[in-house]
Amino acid sequence: MVEQLLAPPSIAERFDYWLIAPERANEMIGKRAPGEVSYAESEQSYTRRQLLKVEKTAIRDKLQSAKVKAEYLAQINQQVHTLIKKKFIQAISDTPGILDKQLNWQDNSTDLIDLLTTPSATITKVEAIAAGMPWLYDELLKLVNAPQNRKRDARGMVIVVDTLKTALSFMGIDNVKVVLPALMFRQSVPLITDPFPQVKHKTVEYTVTCARTAKEIAPQFGAKPYHAYLLAMLSQLGRSVVLKLYFKLFEQVHFDFLQHAQKAKLRDLHGALTQLLPDPAQCISLVNQHSDKLSMHLLEQMVFKRIDLSTPLHQFLQEPDEEDILPLAKTLQQSRYYTKFRMLSDAKLFLEDEARVFQAGSAIHSDTFESLQRTALSQLPVVAEL
Question: Using CB atoms within 10 A as the burial measure, which of 39, 119, 182, 184 is most buried?
């Protein structure tokens, strides 16, 4: 796939882990958590070195036992995930069901996106559709009343926004076009992803940064900026669905295995299952294999009247020749590439001259690249400029 731009593979793997299990990404390059000491520096290491002189056999037996337990746990993990994958494939085969049950995407969601793509979109027209989406009303009020977005009157008193129309007017139509699709995407990400609580925040950060990047670089590749924004944003819906299904199915299948072990009085199995946690590697594999294809099917099912997003995404997945690539597909390709660069750089996950080499692989003009570097792309423009 086009994401091969991320070579060498270790960089791609680092980024995948950064979105799901950030501590694993840090471990890959040898970064320690605050206060963490290396094994060689620890008292346990010193004691072990002393024991090696007198208890080699006992330690060897202990290590062998630990190895056997780890191998058994790996076998159970594989069995659990084999069933998860089977249930996962069944779930994503029902695209209308995914739209309804996993994304809560209704006809008015499609109508709202269609409206936002038109030059004639107004606050009044947006309000008429958004009024039928109660969750959107709640999210908008929460956003505009957040401390960093509050407005004050002439006396310095905070102006509390309590109606949908006021919230929309507070932002202005230009910001509404950016914010509403982002809120619709934010609704799609899973709420519970234990023991990896950062999944939701990292996924939203990646998606918003990618979408805002696409909007900025679209003119260079001959694409319409707002269409590029929507494609970059909505093409991540598949990722959200995969993540949501993975953590939900892990919980269900893990519970079923535990019940079976308990009823059958299988102590070793039950003990192993109590140690089993969601597996980032298995989750990443599902995301990489299915998220973009699922997004394409979802976009086809939405049937937008004024914008075609599924065609450029389909082409993006086909790895077209450079001379044949559609403007929107090229913009999506480069926005994802830059966003990975940006997030890896900010997290200090590049080694030696990797960042320089990675940047050199971008087709974005150098002046635009530098401008992007100075912009807080993960933040949504909420307050209308006066």
Answer: 184
Q: What single string gives the DSSP state of each residue in 259-288?
A: HHHHHTT-HHHHHHHHH----HHHHHHHHH
pLDDT (tens, 9 = 90+) of the chain, 386 residues, equals 444 444 444 889 999 999 999 999 888 888 765 555 555 555 555 555 555 555 666 666 566 666 778 899 999 999 999 999 999 999 999 999 999 999 999 999 999 999 999 999 999 999 999 999 999 989 999 999 998 888 887 787 888 888 999 999 989 999 999 999 999 999 999 999 999 999 999 999 999 999 999 999 999 999 999 999 999 999 999 999 999 999 999 999 999 999 999 999 999 999 999 999 999 999 999 999 999 999 999 999 999 999 999 999 999 999 888 888 999 999 999 999 999 999 999 999 998 889 999 999 999 999 999 999 999 999 998 866 53
User: Residue 325's closest CA among 5, 6, 16?
Assistant: 5
Residue 345 phi/psi, 5° resolution?
-65, -50
- Residues with Cβ within 8 Å of 48's Cβ and at least 6 positions away in sequence, in order, are 59
Q: How many Cα neighbours within 13 Å face the side chain of 165?
A: 3
Please tell me the distance from the alpha carbon of residue 225 to that of residue 221, in angstroms, as a whole number: 10
Rounded CA gap, 294 and 279, in Å?
21
Q: Which residues are CB-neighbours of 124 under 8 A, at least 6 positions away?
A: 165
Cα–Cα dist 383/149, whole Å: 6
